[in-house]
Amino acid sequence: MKPNIQSQIFQQIKLRLANQDSIGNALSELLHISPDAVYRRYRNETPLTATEIQKLCQHFDISFDKLASVGNGKVLFDYPPLNTYDFSLESYLEGIRERFTYLKSLSNPSMLLAINNVQFFQLLNFPQLVRFRLYFWAKTHLQIQDYALEKFKHEKTSDRAFELGRDILQLYNQIPSTEIFDPELMRGFMRQIFYYYKAHLFEDPSYALFLCDRALLMVQHLHDQASVGKKFIYGTQAPAEGNMFNMYVNETINAETTFLYETNESKGLFISHNIMNYLHTSDELYVSDTMKILDKQLANSSLISVVNEKERNSYFYDLEKMIRSFRARIESDLMME
Fold first, then answer.
1. Average of per-residue pLDDT across 285-303
2. What is the number of helices (H) and of strands (E) in the chain?
3. Quick one: residue 162, left, alpha or beta (phi over 0 = left, psi -120 to 50 = alpha)?
């Protein structure tokens, strides 16, 4: 590796450590080498290996593509490969919590989201909905063999999954966010519930009604948060300070779910990929271009949190009406059996 790139990596690490720990101590454990070996790399006496570069960039969220100047029109993304999932709720949530914990540790973090179909973090208020969505992804979209002969059944969320979901929710709530929704929110999710019902893929067909009721509660809770402009966990009260939530409605459609974050130290974004997976980059030009697009999308959207009560109520009325329509179709069909 070129010495200047190696030096820049260590400069980025020093910035992120912010004098909380020495380079030698912090990296010896991560790289499984001695502090002396770390300092030889720090002084460019020993080049970093490819594996060491990968570990450092992932751990400290450093954009190697930016340092290496991969060229105009080329962007490097990282993502969690499918072979790293065991498709348990716990495994899926652990990776998300790790990302959020790091983001929260930086200075003045904020988020700008464009939501397509499902607001996953809000879904965490109701773990049963998250569990169904992950199951649908594994069985129907990815056709994981272990799920081939199974039907979806009611199971109590494990204590570990509940704890992870609550941790993610608390981190998400504490970071100020501006979020753009569209009229299609939850429609695709409701179609997935209806599809499983009609395909006889629920062990207990009436469980589809339970999921519909949870979806209604989620939308109503989102409405409550928009009314006060603050995020808070279902069943609790909005805090007096912090947890800022700016909710906008785009009357056309959000083509994809985009999560752009900004801190004093860095900027980056996540893009939904393969239904529930995601791509991540901190490429400066790509992030800047995406921010310009989202800013224009914001300008064409209506703010409905705190203000514009009429428009806010109308938006949520239509969402609830759509969910109740799916529920009524299932309930009517069940009564005929």
1. 94
2. 13, 7
3. alpha
User: How far is it, in rounded angstroms, from Cα 288 to Cα 279?
Assistant: 16
CA 293 to chain centre: 20
Beta strand spans in 103-202 (E): 110-114, 177-181
Phi-psi region of 154 (alpha: psi -120 to 50; beta: other; left: phi over 0): beta
* Predicted confidence (pLDDT) per residue in 232-282, tens digit: 999 999 999 999 999 999 998 888 899 999 999 888 999 988 777 888 888
Listed by start position, the domains of the chain span 3-62, 82-336
Spatial separation of the C-alpha atoms in residues 119 and 110, rounded to whole Å:
17
Q: Are 82 and 240 in contact (CB under 8 A)?
A: no
Contact in structure between 192 and 130 (CB atoms under 8 Å): no
Residue among 129, 149, 113, 257 at smallest CA distance from 192: 129
Residue 294 CB neighbour total at 10 angstroms: 20
Query: What length does the chain have?
Result: 337
Q: Could you please report the per-residue DSSP string of 94-122?
A: HHHHHHHHHHHHSSS-EEEEE--S--HHH
Q: What CATH number labels 3-62?
A: 1.10.260
Task: Provide the token pair at 207.
Answer: 């469980």
Question: Hey, what amino acid is at 174?
Answer: Q
pLDDT digits over 101-141, tens only?
A: 888 988 999 999 999 999 999 999 999 999 999 899 888 98
> Taking Cα atoms as reference points, which of 71, 138, 143 lies closest to residue 277?
138
